Amino acid sequence: MPALDFDLLLSSLGGVENFSNPKREHQRLKIVIVDVKKINANTLKTLGIPAFLKGRELTLLIKHHTSHVLSYLSERQKEGL
């Protein structure tokens, strides 16, 4: 299993200013998106992360280390504010 590139994931989400309120539900992360047009679906596919958008809520299926990804995104968001 290759390591997940957290910086590339963050970039594919449009950066720290483009999402809020990341939450974990088992192997899924639910994130509220500010500007849906900034999401790079191709990069998410390259990373092997299935993503589902409903309104402005993006659900990411993170198969491994979901809590680490959530911690990373939350920390980057705190640093960006």
CATH-assigned homologous superfamily: Glucose permease domain IIB
Number of domain modules: 1
Strand order of the largest sheet: 1-2-4-3
Q: Give the uncertain stretches in residue-range form.
A: none
| Terminal CA distance | 33 Å
Q: List the total number of helices.
A: 3
In the CATH classification, which architecture applies? Answer: 2-Layer Sandwich
What composes the largest sheet? 4 strands, antiparallel
Structural class by secondary-structure content? alpha+beta
Q: How large a portion of the residues is in β-strands, by DSSP E? A: 25-35%
What share of residues is helical? 25-40%
Radius of gyration: 11 Å
The counted number of beta strands is 4
What is the highest CATH level, the class?
A: Alpha Beta
Mean pLDDT, as a whole number? 92
Order of helices and strands: HEEHEEH
**CATH topological fold name:** Gyrase A, domain 2
Overall geometry: globular
